[in-house]
Design goal:
Length: about 270
């Protein structure tokens, strides 16, 4: 897999610290790397933001909101700010909220680069692929990967797409409006078998319109009740169909109520 500049930078840092093959970065190692690279790390009270980096007179301070709930979110935010430090030396990135951290493909190129960096630092692609090998795809795997790599479910879903470990479609919705979607590329399996990507599938959705009402995501936005996050759906819910198509698909929706933001993964069982 071809690495972007941001991913290659993360990989280089891991290898400089001799951590490339060891496995998953601990939170202490992450803080040590940040300090060793030359930025000051602190966990403080921050008003309505998760993290920020401030550079003044050549000194950078990475501040993470100490009230962030969940190790995964805190780690990803810290790695994201380190990404800004490594990649965007001459700009002052805006403060980061969870929305920038989730809304990967829409938050501008600097935010995407910082997220790509964080993703590769905390979930090195070769280790991620290894962890997925031979396992059945589904919410259970997403949960297991989130525990192994100590990151959020959102970060795992986006890594699944990026590392191309299983053919899926990922759709992001904010305030009941579709923001972006991505389909898996074609891939070669571990046994060198060709697995066609999903770019052959045509989605029947429009940007900035609500998700289909019968999709799991659509149900989340309609209802305040807690819902089954995994459901069997008909292919025609999201895609244009042909008579010979297998119509059964699965949809798993990870909905963050605080941000009114949903990320759906759709796949064939
Ligand atoms: Zn950022």
């Amino acid at each position: 897999m071809l690495l972007s500049k941001a991913e290659a930078t993360a990989k280089k840092i891991l290898s400089e610290f001799g951590l490339n093959e060891i496995g998953i970065l601990t939170s202490t190692e992450l803080q040590t790397i940040i300090q060793a690279r030359g930025a000051y790390y602190e966990e403080v009270e921050l008003d309505s933001m998760d993290g920020r980096i401030v550079t003044f007179n050549g000194k950078s301070v990475i501040s993470i909101n100490k009230n962030i709930v969940g190790t995964g979110k805190k780690r990803f935010t810290a790695a994201h700010e380190l990404g800004h430090f490594e990649l965007h030396k001459n700009i002052q990135p805006p403060a980061d909220t969870q929305y920038e951290l989730c809304n990967w493909y829409q938050s501008g190129s600097h935010e995407k680069e910082a997220n790509d960096f964080a993703s590769e630092l905390l979930m090195p692609t070769h280790l991620f692929i290894q962890e997925c090998k031979g396992k059945k795809f589904g919410p259970q795997l997403i949960k297991q990967l989130a525990e192994t790599f100590q990151v959020t479910h959102t970060a795992i879903i986006l890594k699944i797409l990026k590392a191309n470990v299983h053919p899926v479609c990922v759709i992001a919705t904010k305030k009941n409006k579709i923001k972006w979607w991505k389909l898996s590329q074609s891939m070669e399996s571990a046994d060198h078998e060709f697995i066609p990507g999903w770019t052959k599938y045509k989605l029947r959705i429009t940007s900035n319109l609500p998700p289909p009402p019968d999709s799991v995501m659509g149900q989340f936005f309609k209802s305040n009740k807690s819902l089954e996050t995994l459901q069997e759906i008909d292919k025609s819910t999201w895609f244009l169909t042909h008579p010979q198509d297998n119509l059964v698909m699965l949809e798993y929706c990870n909905y963050i109520r605080d941000y009114d933001f949903g990320l759906s993964v759709v796949w064939e069982d």
